[in-house]
């Protein structure tokens, strides 16, 4: 069964990895909604 649940991905503001992850998702055939954070600590606190 394929999950149709909405996917969220935490990304750091100003990171160069945004484009890399977008390319990866496109190549693997999934979509996501990015949520941007200023620090890795803020990402951890959001979990």
Characterize the quaternary organization of these chains. single chain
Which stretches are low in confidence, meaning pLDDT under 50 for 5 or more residues running? none
Radius of gyration: 12 Å
Strand content: 15-25%
Order of helices and strands: EHEH
Report the average pLDDT across residues.
Answer: 91
Structural class by helix and strand composition: alpha+beta
Count of distinct strands: 2
* Major pleated sheet: 2 strands, parallel
Q: Helix segment count?
A: 2
Helix content: 40-55%
Structure overview:
With 47 residues, the chain is of the alpha+beta class. It has helices at 17-28, 40-46; strands at residues 8-12, 33-37. Helix 1 (17-28) links the parallel strand 1 and strand 2 (33-37). The longest helix has 12 residues, at 17-28. The N and C termini lie far apart (26 Å). The mean pLDDT is 91.
């Amino acid at each position: 069964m394929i999950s149709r649940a909405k996917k969220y991905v935490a990304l750091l503001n100003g990171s160069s990895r945004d484009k890399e992850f977008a390319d990866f998702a496109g190549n693997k055939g999934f979509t996501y909604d990015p949520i941007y954070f200023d620090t890795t600590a803020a990402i951890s606190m959001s979990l």
